Each structure stands twice: as C-alpha cells, then as structure tokens.
Amino acid sequence: MVSARREGERLVVFIPGWMSAEQERDWVAEMVKRVEASEARRRSPGRNNDEALMRRGQELSTRWLEGRARPSSIRWVPVMRTRWASCTPDDATIRISERLRDAPGWVVDYVLVHELAHLLSAAHDEVFWSWVHRYPRTERAIGYLEGLNAAAELGITGVDGDPDTADGTDGPVGEREVGGFGGTGPGMEPVRATGT
C-alpha cells in the first residue's frame, strides 16, 4: 500500500491517491522514520571515526579470524582512486576508502575481513580465501561492491595488490602493499578501481 525508496539524497514515498492530506502527512512521517531506522541498523559501527573502525576490525578478527589478524591501525582515508581499501602487512596497517563510509555495515565488515586476512596471507591464494570465506556474507558483499562500481562508473580495470605502486596508483612507493580490494573472488582476476 505505502512504500518508500531512496533516490540519491531524497526519500520518495509512494502513497495511494485515495488517502487524505492528513493520512499522507502521517504516512510520510512514518516512512521517513522507518527508512532512517533501517539505514541506521545497516550502517557500520566503524563509520564514525578511525577508533571505531579499529574496534570493529578487532571484533571481526576475533569473530571470523580466530583473533589472529592483529592490525596496528585501521583508518579511513580520502577516496582512493584505484581501490576500496588496502593493507600493508609489513607494518600491519589497513586503510579503508571514505567511499565506503556510507555503505551497509555488512559490506564494510567484508572489506575489513578481506584486508585483515592479508595480515594472515598476503597473496590472494587459497589460504587467503579460506580465511575470507569464514565471513558469511562474502559473496553478497562482493556482488554489492561490483554493483556499486558499475553504477558509479568507477572503471575498475587493474590488478590489486601490486607490490610496486610507482604506476601512479594509491599507496606509497616501495612498501609492500596488498589487498587493494576492488571486488574479487577466488578464480577471478583481482581488480582496481580507477575512478575518482
């Protein structure tokens, strides 16, 4: 009967034409309340700041990676041109693109698990994917990120995890940086986002 959906920053509420103006006002207020509550439940607990993101990473490591992944830092960074996130195993640092700050919590959790798994296995090999697939929404999150990439026309093109980033992509030159996640799975070529 009454439904709502997001269109960018706007919430569009669909109301039957037979409702009175008063009923319409009541339903719009109700649907705004419902959608905002639903969006709040889906947001990542780590979206507020770097400390919250670090806490969430530690929680996910404990829950899905036997507590074995121990990052020295996890932080939000300005929008990365070429990836969703990255990890430098040498110093156990993880960076998550601001582009994901408003993504559903289960997507951010997947990206965190993906990057945390690089602290246990740097390459995108079977060992790495066996860790990542402990997170139950792995495939769904990969699909979400691929859809986000396509919808935003980010132009995912390259391979993530190149040890040398002197090619003008994100990451410091000379550091071994892996896991620049662009939406990959076992048996698929890892990719990098090249959009802005």
Your description of this structure?
- 36% of the residues lie in helices and 12% in strands.
- Residues 156-179 and 183-196 have low confidence and may be disordered.
- The strands form 2 sheets. Strands 3-5-4 form a 3-stranded mixed β-sheet. A two-stranded antiparallel ribbon has the order 1-2.
- Helix 2 crosses helix 3 (105-117).
- With 196 residues, the protein is α+β, with helices and mostly antiparallel strands.
Q: What's the gist of this structure?
A:
The protein is of the alpha+beta class. Among the domains are: 3-42; 50-78 and 89-135, Zincin-like (2-Layer Sandwich). It has helices spanning 21-42, 50-64, 105-117, 126-132, 138-151; strands at residues 3-7, 10-14, 73-77, 85-88, 93-97.
Q: Indicate the overall shape.
A: elongated
- Beta percentage is 5-15%
* H/I helix tally: 5
CATH architecture of the domain at 50-78 and 89-135: 2-Layer Sandwich
| Topology pattern, helix = H, strand = E | EEHHEEEHHH
Give the full name of the CATH homologous superfamily of the domain at 50-78 and 89-135: Metalloproteases ("zincins"), catalytic domain
**Cα radius of gyration in angstroms:** 19 Å
Number of strands: 5
Structural category is alpha+beta
CATH-derived topology of the domain at 50-78 and 89-135: Zincin-like
Q: Which stretches of 5+ consecutive residues score pLDDT under 50? A: 156-179, 183-196
**What proportion of the residues is helical, as a percent range?**
25-40%
Major sheet size, sense and barrel closure: 3 strands, mixed
- Widest beta sheet: strand line-up: 3-5-4
Average pLDDT score: 78
State the CATH class of the domain at 50-78 and 89-135. Answer: Alpha Beta
